[in-house]
Design brief:
With 453 residues, this protein is of the alpha+beta class. It is 32% helix and 32% strand. Helix 4 (135-170) runs antiparallel to helix 5 (176-209). The longest helix has 36 residues, at 135-170. The protein is elongated and about 165 Å long.
């Protein structure tokens, strides 16, 4: 290293010493503060999580149904087995079918000159419907009347000749053959007169047919042909359709299994009442009687058609309307019945492998339940509640469970909260329940005192 370089380094050394960085004391203090704050936040979060966990895992006080379950009682609703008059009803879907549906047609051909009805209104039997031009038929009538008068004159002349010939034949003035031939001539003229009279009567009938009238009483539909059209006697369209509305019938089908209850009563002259409701099965349309049962069973459905007649005074029935028909087959007197909600279907009380059978939970006087199999019958509606008849297994006055039967078992003591829809006082907690251990013969105060000793 030369002399010049060494001197340069010695001159720069003081400057280098002055520019050396010194440690930052404030930055070091700020970093420690951040660490302490972070530790405090972590500790607070941990305490919060711990407290929340204790609150969640802590047992909640038992209230309502849960308290009753902890006390060993399950709340149920019950109903009393009663006797009722039960109508046996067959429900079926029917169609409103008029007794008469007539398509009004012209029996002659001609121009329609006038329409005498208003579409959609009621018409009486014999009311004018339409008018056909009758002038051509009047002309034909006059022509046939003239032919009739001509043949009647010839007949009168032949009859006079016959009398004269018969007189002369008796006097042997003419041959008997001439008198006999005159008899046949009279018969020929008589036939001509009858033929002419028939032609005249036919034209009289055609003139009457020109005035088209209603054949039945009912509601007339829309007009199918307008005035001015040439009407054909063989037209398939017709002028209008008239439907009889009073009385009216409903045709519905019932299962063939119900025929043994229906046919004997009909043969004895009994009447079956049928109540018809609208398609939604809400509004009652009317009450009628069965008037006919079909002559054979439909093998594809296993049903037979039945016709019931209704007066339809308020025109509630409309042709081809779908209705719900309820046929009253018979009425069961003093039938054992329970709410349908009490009927259970499953395995309790049945042998393994057997099909599910209906059963109920019966409550005895000690509020214990027992499983009992029953035989069910028809269902019916009473006070807006669905009821089911019991043919065997229950008797009047017994109580059955209608609500809360999902976790019941035989021998379990229950708390009956409602009977027949009315609230009752809850039962006392039985001794030795799972929620509390009690010593028989000691009051709660005595047990507390013993515990403090």
């Amino acid at each position: 290293m030369d002399e010049r370089t060494r001197k340069s380094d010695e001159e720069l050394a003081p400057n280098l010493r002055r520019t050396t960085p010194q440690p930052d004391v404030r930055g070091r203090t700020f970093s420690k503060t951040r660490i302490v704050v972070g530790l405090i936040i972590v500790v607070l979060l941990g305490l919060g999580v711990y407290q929340i966990g204790r609150w969640v895992l802590a047992p909640q006080p038992a209230t309502g149904r849960r308290a009753q379950l902890q006390a060993g009682l399950q709340s149920v609703g019950a109903a009393t087995v009663t006797l009722n008059s039960v109508p046996v009803v067959v429900n079926a879907l029917g169609t409103v079918t008029p007794i008469a549906t007539v398509t009004v047609q012209s029996q002659i051909s001609g121009y329609m000159t006038k329409v005498n009805f208003t579409e959609g209104l009621l018409v009486q039997k014999g009311d004018p419907i339409a008018q056909i031009d009758q002038r051509p038929y009047e002309v034909l009538k006059a022509q046939y009347e003239g032919q009739l008068a001509h043949d009647q004159g010839l007949l009168s002349q032949a009859q006079m000749d016959l009398k004269r010939y018969q007189t002369l034949a008796e006097q042997n003035s003419i041959a008997k053959q001439q008198a006999e031939d005159q008899v046949f001539i009279v018969q020929q003229y008589e036939g001509s007169v009858k033929q002419d009279q028939g032609l005249v009567d036919a034209q009289i009938l055609n003139i009457a047919y020109c005035n088209i009238t209603s054949p039945v009483t009912g509601r007339i539909g829309l007009r199918l042909i307008d005035p001015g059209n040439y009407v054909q006697s063989d037209s398939a369209t017709g002028l209008a359709v008239i439907t009889q509305l009073q009385p009216i019938t409903v045709i519905f089908s019932i299962p063939e299994d119900d025929l043994p209850d229906v046919i004997p009563q009909m043969n004895s002259g009994a009447k079956f009442q049928v109540t018809a409701f609208d398609r939604a099965n809400v509004k009652q349309l009317g009450v009628g009687d069965v008037i006919a049962v079909d002559s054979q069973i439909d093998t594809t459905t296993g049903t037979v058609r039945v016709r019931a007649q209704f007066e339809n005074t308020d025109y509630a029935f409309f042709p081809n309307q779908f209705v719900n028909a309820r046929l009253l087959v018979k009425t069961l007197q003093n039938a054992v019945s329970v709410p349908s909600a009490a009927i259970q279907l499953g395995s309790p009380g049945t042998t393994p492998g057997s099909p599910p059978a209906p059963y109920v939970y019966v409550i005895d006087s000690n509020s214990k339940v027992d499983v009992r199999q029953v035989m069910t019958g028809p269902t019916f509606i009473a006070s807006n509640n669905s009821m089911t008849t019991i043919t065997s297994g229950l008797s009047q006055g017994e109580r059955v469970v209608t609500d809360g039967a999902d976790r019941l078992r035989a021998g379990l003591t229950v708390n009956v909260t409602t009977i027949d829809g009315k609230a009752v006082q809850p039962a006392a907690t039985p001794p030795n329940g799972p929620g509390e251990k009690r010593n028989r013969g000691q009051s709660p105060g005595q047990r507390s005192g013993n515990g403090s000793q």
